[in-house]
Specification:
With 791 residues, the chain is an alpha/beta fold. The chain contains 23 helices and 33 strands.
Length: 791
């Protein structure tokens, strides 16, 4: 009988693919074997030709989710004596590299098992199977087997071992398999690390009284219910609980309690940036938010991201989320429990909880219990911890559903480290991304893997995480980079790390201009080669002329980029301080237009003692870098409209401006002409008439929402004019400003009506989280020479 050898590549490890192959081969009466291999999965199968055809067709057409078959190589082999089909031990030899599986939310079958009144996994917080549970967060090496995960320390009990070896069981070769008898355990400790137990009043006592408990008591208790009940009682009592989750610690408080939310903000030093809220069920989400079918699919999918949802009006809401959770925002970030530990905790709390990353502002998320106790000891009252090590930090992904469908704003859990194919031949490339919302990326074998969201590189801890993650990707996939790419800015932490790594790997360094990388990231995702007109609008990025760009229209064709147009430049008094003070951007705009005449308007935002030195700086041209940033233009207009002079986080004023514009409805746009540049120079879109018109509206008492809507409409008009002038039928929207759903959707609609194809990021962030992908795209299309990319 004929015998075939198949090598399958794609998302085929850690997702129940080998058991699927086993069941299908056995059902067709085929002999042979399947095993994990560093290049994916290897299969040898023997039997009647008709059965073999059915087997191969099933793998191609009907791979069971979440498996994804990307490539199958098939060879004829000589017939052998074949017994029943079997799963062999995985091969750890060198060779092609597989895709690493992403972490998956608890499946319905496991959730039912955890919720059941009987069964040995009743209320067990670490229940999983071949279709769900931890993957990337526990992986220490390839191929994906228990011995190369942080579960290696937990020896399977006889019952789990029997399930693991039973082809008919859904835990057949499920590497994180565990139960209360042999798996990880949970315990509750104080901020000093002392184990706790309930008071004599019993679990869930309203006063939340707790007393220290010995380690022996904890290990001997068996059931996690006591720890979970006391953690839930603490949340209900208004305390802050730090929970060790899948990819790091979360901080939990009662989302319906203004006092609890205020306490968390004070301790975490996070004044107003929105928190995400975890709800116990989809019905519970609908008590607070409007949920479309597509949004429900996103919430309930195996990736289970945070999804930005429109909040119900207070009169329509059936649960009152504290205003301080997302102050001034029309949308709420909602997510569902994606591990049994979260599920059980939410059931006990019985109401929505704030679920935010376990870190202090601007620091990486904590993954180790001792580190969490040290860094979060002043934030959390209690720590719900477990003894399964986390291999690498992994934040929650953030998504929205817009007119174009599902869009990721932060790519992490559930999506990382799934690869993106690139149609280019190039040696391995390591990219270090930007300075804010950082990611790293690794290109090899015609695909690129973008790391999880790593946060900002302001701190030494943040910079160290970027370097560790870059090296972790190279180690995990066994790739030695032959090119290293980074941002053009010489002082970014990522740029300095890239220089060091390029020297260590003896690889050329490719510096990619910030906004070129933004556009290139979207081109990479959609398989575009160019030329395209890229509208790259964001807060700021280092330009080729050494100024701060951020309102760019670039013609991008592969690795080349030409600046076709930009926002009129203006000074930013105080430089980076303007990121947190929209009034400074407004002052810079007014100074650019009216010089000393800006003083009268600025008195609304500054005391005279503050204003005088700033005007002197502007007059001298010192401490006031010039910028073309649309993001800072948003800030300035927000201040002019009377929204806010200071912000607690970058983008706050712009987000509030979007909310007001959306509520105001469609308006005619302010004038914002696009003026031709000198020969060989880019065109300029001039904010002067817009600012003067907005000032006039403000004097006339026009509501801020109308001003906001007219401003948005002006930018849509600019995009239309730039697209028309370019003569290109393809426009890419990239940069952090296009996290603004109203702006992105309005431009898309306007340009589509003119027959222009519009592309925007979908599965990679439009902001700086996509820079590493764009750097890879450009570096792969350049020669092996170091230096800045011209554009």
């Amino acid at each position: 009988m004929p015998r075939l050898a198949l090598r399958v590549q794609g998302i085929v490890q850690g997702v129940g693919f080998r058991p699927l192959v086993y069941r299908r081969a056995s059902a067709l009466g085929l002999g042979g074997w399947v095993r994990n291999h560093p290049g994916g999965v290897e299969i040898e199968v023997q039997g009647p030709e008709r059965s073999l055809r059915a087997f191969v067709a099933g793998l191609i057409r009907e791979p069971s989710a979440p498996a994804r078959v990307e490539r199958i190589e098939i060879e004829q082999r000589a017939e052998e004596e074949a017994g029943p089909f079997q799963i062999l031990r995985s091969e750890a030899a060198s060779g092609a590299r597989p895709s690493v599986p992403a972490d998956l939310a608890v499946c319905e079958a496991c959730a039912r098992e955890v919720d059941s009144e009987t069964g040995r996994r009743r209320r067990y917080p670490f229940t999983s199977c071949a279709q769900c549970g931890p993957r990337y967060t526990i992986l220490s090496g390839l191929p994906y087997d228990r011995a190369r995960t942080t579960m290696e320390r937990f020896a399977m009990c006889p019952a789990c071992a029997a399930e693991y070896e039973d082809p008919s069981d859904r835990r057949f070769h499920a590497e994180p398999i565990a139960c209360p008898a042999c798996g990880p355990r949970v315990q509750l400790v104080t901020s000093a690390g002392d184990p706790m137990e309930p008071s004599l009043g019993g679990s869930g006592s309203p006063d939340g009284a707790l007393r220290p408990r010995t380690q022996a008591d904890i290990r001997g208790s068996g059931s996690p219910d006591g720890a979970l009940r006391e953690a839930a009682a603490a949340v209900l009592a208004g305390r802050v609980v730090a929970m060790k989750g899948l990819g790091g610690f979360h901080l939990l408080v009662d989302a319906t309690s203004p006092d609890a939310v205020a306490l968390l903000r004070r301790r975490k030093r996070r004044d107003a940036k929105p928190f995400a809220v975890m709800f116990g069920s989809l019905d519970a989400v609908r008590d607070a938010c409007r949920v479309s079918p597509a949004e429900a699919d996103a919430l309930c999918g195996p990736e289970a991201p945070i999804v930005l949802l429109r909040r119900l009006a207070p009169a329509a809401a059936r649960v009152a989320i504290a205003d301080a959770v997302a102050p001034g925002m029309a949308r709420l970030g909602a997510l569902l429990p994606y591990t049994p530990l979260h599920r059980l905790t939410l059931q006990l709390v019985g109401r929505p909880v704030v679920c935010t990353s376990g870190n202090l502002s601007d620091e990486p998320i904590c993954i180790d219990t001792s580190d969490a106790l040290e860094r979060l000891g002043g934030v959390a009252d209690l720590f719900l911890v477990h003894d399964r090590p986390i291999a690498r930090p992994l934040d929650d992904s953030v998504a929205r559903v817009g007119p174009a469908g599902f869009e990721l704003l932060r790519r992490a859990r559930g999506f990382t480290p799934l690869p993106l194919p690139l149609r280019v031949t190039a040696p391995p490339i390591l990219a270090l991304g930007g300075h804010l919302k950082s990611t790293t990326a690794l290109f090899f074998d015609g695909q690129v893997v973008v790391s999880q969201h790593l946060g900002d590189a302001h701190t030494a801890e943040g910079a160290a995480l970027i370097e560790r993650t870059a090296l972790d990707l190279a180690r995990l996939f066994r790739v030695r980079p032959e090119r290293v790419a980074c941002d053009l800015h010489p002082d970014y932490a990522g740029s300095r790390i890239a220089e060091q790594l390029a020297a260590a790997f003896r690889a050329p360094l490719v510096r990619v201009q910030h906004h070129h990388a933004h556009v290139a990231a979207c081109m990479a995702e959609h398989g575009l080669d160019g030329p395209v007109l890229g509208l790259a609008w964001d807060g700021a990025g280092y330009g080729l002329d050494g100024t701060l760009w951020g309102g760019e229209a670039l013609v991008v064709d592969g690795s080349s980029s030409r600046r076709a147009a930009h926002l009129r430049s203006f000074p930013l008094p105080g430089g980076e301080r303007a990121m947190k003070e929209p009034r400074r951007a407004a002052l810079g705009l007014l100074w650019e237009l009216h010089g000393e005449g800006a003083r009268d308007h600025a008195r609304a935002w500054f005391r005279e003692a503050e204003l005088g030195p700033l005007l002197s700086m502007l007059a001298r041209g010192t401490g006031s870098p010039r910028t073309t940033s649309v993001g800072r233009l948003f800030d300035g207009v927000a201040a002019l409209a009377g929204l806010r002079g200071a912000a607690s986080f970058e983008g706050q004023a712009a987000m509030e401006l979007e909310c007001l514009a959306e509520a105001a409805g469609e308006q005619a746009g302010y004038p914002m002409p696009v003026r031709a540049g000198a020969p060989g120079e880019p065109a300029v879109f001039d904010f002067g008439p817009l600012i003067d018109a907005a000032l006039g509206d403000r004097r006339d008492g026009v509501p801020p929402g109308i001003i906001a809507a007219r401003f948005h409409a002006a930018l849509v008009g600019v995009a239309e004019a730039l697209a028309t002038a370019s003569g290109l039928g393809c426009v890419v929207l990239a940069g952090g400003c296009f996290q603004n759903a109203l702006l992105a959707a309005s431009i898309r609609e306007r340009l589509a009506a003119r027959g222009v194809e519009v592309y925007a990021p979908r599965l990679y962030p439009p902001g700086d989280g996509g820079l590493s992908l764009g750097q890879v795209f450009v570096a792969a299309r350049r020669g092996a020479h170091a230096g800045a990319v011209e554009g």
